Amino acid sequence: MMTRRQALAAAAGLSVAGIGACPAMAARAPIAFGSAAEIGVFRDDPRYREALKTHCDIVVPMNDLKWEALRHERASFDFSGADELVAFAASNKQALRGHTLLWGEALPPWAKTLSTRAEAERELIGHIEVVVDRYKGKIATWDVVNEAIRFDPREGGPFRDTIWQRLLGPEHIEIAFRTAARIDPKARLVLNDFSFEEADGGTAERRKVALSILRRLKDKGIPVHGLGMQAHLYGDKTIDSPGIQQFMRDLAALEVEVEITELDVIDWKLPADAATRDRAAASLVSAYLDAVASVRQPKAIVTWGLSDRHTWIDETFPRKDGAKARPLPLDVDYKPKPMMSVLNRYRRGAS
Ligand code: XIL
Fold this sequence. Notes:
This protein is an alpha/beta fold. It is 42% helix and 15% strand. It has one domain (29-348): TIM Barrel. It has helices at 4-11, 16-20, 39-44, 46-55, 67-70, 80-91, 117-134, 163-168, 171-183, 201-219, 241-253, 274-293, 313-316, 338-348; strands at residues 32-37, 58-61, 95-102, 141-146, 188-193, 226-229, 232-234, 257-266, 300-303. The longest helix has 20 residues, at 274-293. The radius of gyration is 20 Å and the shape is globular. Residues 38, 62-63, 146, 230, 262, 304, 312 line the site of (3S,4R)-3-hydroxy-2-oxopiperidin-4-yl beta-D-xylopyranoside.
């Protein structure tokens, strides 16, 4: 007889063997699901808006809260795109995540010319004060700091070489969290980063750095509530389930929650056949979510877009055969793929 889990996996078009090795799932509460939304497509394509409404409990402005979008002029803020997405989410009773208050990328040209510690500190604090204050009571969760960890911390130290790290040192992280907490004491504050899922030395080191940043914030009494794991999963690599489970236990010991913030599957090295790729992507997402949720219930699962029609993977990880990427839960015609069944299993909760 099929278990419920096997039946769900079969319905999702997954090979049961592919996910059968995962830990048995206990009864589990539903997990809020959401997606990042790109403003250009959001404005142009009614099907995109409809998909966001149908499938999401949470909306994340994909680019419109980045410095590049908000601060093209040093002296003023342009909230037009972010305001539109925030209003859309509010009218659909969806929650919002804010992405992101501090990042070394997506900076306007003027910000790259900051040259003294005092100037960087003044700009950073001023920016966070204005942005967090504007969305107080509307954006409940912030990716306060994005991608602060060096890609391979074994080469050159724990922190990524950004304008903030260069001018403020590791303290840039504390300044950002402290400021966000001061302006909106009720907000959930998250450290967001990538590459926590593979079984290699660099990843192990990245997990250690994340833990040490979080521990330091906690020790200093600076509020930090969650670790955001981007989870841009490589389709051709395997998920390090034991490593992830240990990481989840270490985060639990620090009393830090987890959420999955930018889930998609980088399918550039997967076979050309679409159905094969979709099955592999669903299976990988299932293995990943099972590894996380077997130890910690994530606060949210957010994909970096909903439909393969619009995805950053096409540009950033193009396939050699020129075929369009298929990283997301809906296909180019907004039809659910096997990955959506996996995500729905978590969204509904399982027993
Ligand atoms: C990407 C967006 O999806 C693109 O539209 C944009 O051109 C570049 O940024 N990690 C992050 C996200 O934290 O902000 C990035 O988003 C993808 C990688």
